[in-house]
């Protein structure tokens, strides 16, 4: 069920035109995990283009510290 809720939240963000202007960490961290996954970052083209560079520990997620370098 948790996975379905996460998926639905990501779909809602992706379909929202306001989501493409999302640049706030907490707004992008849809699941509240304290990190931004690639799926969550995918709603922001600029962030996605920098994702690999920002993900300095290469764990596939951006911490608040990594995100602050954007």
Give a topology summary.
Blueprint: H1 2-15, H2 25-28, E1 36-37, H3 38-41, H4 45-54, E2 61-62, H5 64-67
Antiparallel strand pairs: 1-2
Structure description:
By secondary structure, this protein is mostly helical. The protein has a single domain (2-67), classed as Recoverin, domain 1. It has helices at 2-15, 25-28, 38-41, 45-54, 64-67, and strands at residues 36-37, 61-62. The chain has a two-stranded antiparallel ribbon with strand order 1-2. The protein is globular, with a radius of gyration of 11 Å. The mean pLDDT is 83.
In short:
The chain has one domain: Orthogonal Bundle (Recoverin, domain 1), CATH 1.10.238.
Distance between the termini: 33 Å
Strand order of the largest sheet: 1-2
**CATH-assigned fold name:** Recoverin, domain 1
Count of helical segments?
5
Can you tell me the number of structural domains? 1
Overall 3D form: globular
* Biggest sheet architecture: 2 strands, antiparallel
* Average predicted local confidence, pLDDT: 83
Strand content: 5-15%
- Series of secondary-structure elements, N-terminal to C-terminal: HHEHHEH
* The level-1 CATH class: Mainly Alpha
CATH architecture label: Orthogonal Bundle
Q: Low-confidence runs (pLDDT<50, min 5 residues)?
A: none
Structural class based on helices, strands and sheet pairing: mainly alpha
Keywords: Signal
Protein name: EF-hand domain-containing protein
Pfam families: EF-hand_1, EF-hand_5
GO molecular function, one term: calcium ion binding
């Amino acid at each position: 069920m948790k996975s379905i809720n996460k998926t639905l939240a990501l779909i809602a963000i992706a379909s929202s035109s306001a989501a493409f202007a999302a640049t706030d960490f907490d707004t992008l961290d849809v699941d509240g995990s304290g990190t931004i996954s690639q799926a969550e970052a995918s709603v922001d083209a600029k962030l996605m283009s920098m994702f690999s560079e920002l993900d300095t520990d290469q764990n596939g997620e951006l911490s608040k510290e990594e995100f602050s370098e954007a």
